[in-house]
Amino acid sequence: MTFWVELPRDFVSVSGPDAVSFLQGQLSQDVEGLAVGSSAWSFVLQPQGKVDAWLRVTRSADDAFVLDVDRGWGEAVVARLERFMLRTKATFEALPDWHCIAVRGDGPDDLDLRGPDVSPPEGVPEGTAEDYEVWRITHGVPAMGRELTEKTIPAESGVVDRSVSFTKGCYTGQELVARIDSRGGNVPRRLRLVALGDGAPTPEPGTPVVVEGAEVGVITSAARSVALAYVKRDVDPPAEATVAGAAARIEALP
After folding, report:
1. Global pTM?
2. DSSP calls for 63-88
3. Per-residue pLDDT tens digits of the chain, which is 254 residues long
4. Cα within 13 Å of Cα(254), Cβ side
5. Which residues pair with 11 in a beta bridge?
6. Which residue among 12, 90, 103, 219 is least packed, with the fewest CB closer than 10 Å?
């Protein structure tokens, strides 16, 4: 079923003569390569390479961009970026009037309508927050504060392929990302999809995932009959598991 929901997102504009070069040195994505009107997902990393934020960057003009991130994280993103602005001609501006209407479904027609004046597409029913959460989990989309925290290594999250350029120049936090990639992407744990049994209770974040009596991971998000969990790398999906005393199945992300 295709549906729409309004997603809680924070929007920030970055503009000025140095906006391109500054963001190119701070984001994992190739900002210089973005055409005006195009978007890409990107990490903002700590100098040690762990995650400060996962956001979308959209080039709105030759020297202007819009960053959008999960609601509640916009100020943290600006504070993090401003710490590295040394003699940089670029300014940040919050865009509190902007909204994001997400259209989601089972097919390839998912899209986000963003701006100060956006409306749901005609003929598409409105979904619920739980509908979106089920879609997000099923499609392995990580959320800030759940799957992505200051302790997360990018390669664990399952979104490096669409969020990192391995051909651009240096950026803050690049060393850890490049080193793990050169070693085949091996990390101690990986984000996995967990299919819960019919009628099983929805587990709270932090609930252990158990395989053959041993704890191998922990739930980060759950809705209805699906969940996301970070699971030790030596557990190869698919694998039978137990979550909160109920049968479950660990699967690879789509």
Report:
1. 0.95
2. TEEEEEEETT-HHHHHHHHHTT-SS-
3. 899 999 999 999 999 999 999 999 999 999 999 999 999 999 999 999 999 999 999 999 999 999 999 999 999 999 999 999 989 999 999 999 999 999 999 876 799 999 999 999 999 999 999 999 999 999 999 999 999 999 999 999 999 999 999 999 999 999 999 999 998 888 999 999 999 988 889 999 999 999 999 999 999 999 999 999 999 999 999 999 999 999 999 999 98
4. 10
5. 68
6. 103
